[in-house]
Design a protein that fits this description.
2 strands; alpha+beta; two-stranded parallel sheet
Amino acid sequence: MDFKSWKTVCRYEQQPDLPVLDEVDVLVVGGGAAGVAAATVAGEAGKSVLLIEK
């Protein structure tokens, strides 16, 4: 894959004023079986991980 050709589309005229809660290497959204597995593997690889679930 050619990741350098990917472009990020900004949908905001200016940056929204939202709080930054944490800075992590991997953010996993969803605490189901796949989410827990992804967070575990990333953590074991030495990445800082945040898993969020409603």
